[in-house]
Amino acid sequence: MANDDQFKKVISHAKEYGYVFQSSEIYDGLSAVYDYAQNGVELKKNIRDYWWKSMVQMHDNIVGLDASIFMHPTTWKASGHVDAFSDPLIDNKDSKKRYRADVLVEDYCAKIETKIEKEVKKAAKRFGDAFNKDEFLSTNPRVVGYQEKINSILKRLGQSLEKEDLADVKALIEELGIACPVAGSKNWTDVKQFNLMFGTKLGASADTAIDLYLRPETAQGIFVNFLNVQKTGRMKIPFGIAQTGKAFRNEIVARQFIFRMREFEQMEMQYFIKPGTQLKWFEYWKEERLKWHKSLGLGEENYRFHDHEKLAHYADAATDIEFRFPFGFKELEGIHSRTDFDLKQHEEFSGKKLQYFDHEDNASYTPYVLETSIGLDRMFLAVFSNALVEEELDNNTTRTVLKLPAVLAPNKAAILPLVKKDGLPEIAKQIVEDLKWDFNVTYDEKDAVGRRYRRQDANGTPFCITVDHDTLEDQSVTIRHRDTMEQKRVKIEDLKDIIKAEVDVKHWLKKMK
């Protein structure tokens, strides 16, 4: 299945099975704004809970926070967002379409990466079991040439953006012969910076209203509360503050479904550390976060680190965990060493000290910060797109199955009476009543049982539990596993333990150890 076709199937499946709807669809929608439907809201909640349990509940020195979306406007002056939170935009004069200049260049490099992947597949087919991928990537002249070209392009792009040499960014686009994806035209405007913050007003009248911004990130709410949390929680460095919540960015080009939206949710943790220890903690959290991702079983080959060529103004080290989406490797989570920039900026603009007194050193200092930041919506898309597969079955038919990690699935089990009579629905509904105290479960009695199995496969439900006439005699049911389609006869009283063994967070997070 071609990647474009796969992505179209992902978007279609998300709507058809109640995961994601276009916002305000009856009014033809609102660009790059989406609603999470009845199954989507459960999957999103389960991802958030999985992150929270791992980050907060499993760490003695990390606590939570829920800061407000509205913040004093000086916050964004201090953080640098008013002056520096912008993306380079470029317009095509013929199509009148607007693009992020850096994304155009990155997409060009992604096409070269696709050529590398094709070379790898051809070689793997040719050499079979004797194929050594790492050796091939480092020695094959064509692949090495492709990789050198990518590195050269991205290095130049990073240096130009860091120096704010927007003329060279345009020159790079022209030298690479990048055309407008819509019109095929290479007639570009100059590159300009575009601030991404949404402005709003606070106040009852136009005369007294003050200008505010919808927060473009959740981190600043943590920084301004650093001392409040540290003192009230009697926290000792190193310690972390975690938060999930909405952020808003007026993206130049919001695209690729829920990958890049104007209203999105972040899951962030800011880890406050002693100056001079930042590189140690940077490496630690890189590995910890990758372990968390891998614990979900989405495939180790679908992750990679991408170190930043261009560092943000506050960072001394930064890397992304990239995931292989249907449209290529893209950023899923960022790990940044933010130094003491944020706390010192807020000290300067507020006139209040934000320092930590270290009793061991008998000295005060401004802590450094190590940040982990993941987009919840992007994580949703990573999980969902990876899970959607079409399988060829032994009887020459196919089935569409959403192989969500069982710990994240919206419904853990579907309870199915074989027929809608003979007391079977009553037993099935009693099983629902018993299980719903511990799990999200659903009841399904419409259509033949085979069609119900297929429907639950496509919904991502890990277990189907069928009540039949034998159940009346032996108090046993048939439990079917989504991924293997294996069916077993089990006692009703054992259902809770069987399901828990597969969906319990502890079972999944222990893979990180």
Automatic annotation (TrEMBL):
Q: Does the keyword Nucleotide-binding apply?
A: yes
Q: Where on this chain does ATP bind?
A: 249-251, 259-264, 331-332, 375-378
Q: Which SUPFAM superfamilies match?
A: Class II aaRS ABD-related, Class II aaRS and biotin synthetases
Q: Which UniProt keywords apply?
A: Aminoacyl-tRNA synthetase, ATP-binding, Cytoplasm, Ligase, Nucleotide-binding, Protein biosynthesis
Grouped into one coarse class, the protein's main location is cytoplasm
Oligomeric state and interaction partners are given as:
Homodimer.
Q: What is this protein called?
A: Glycine--tRNA ligase
- Give the organism, scientific name: Winogradskyella marina
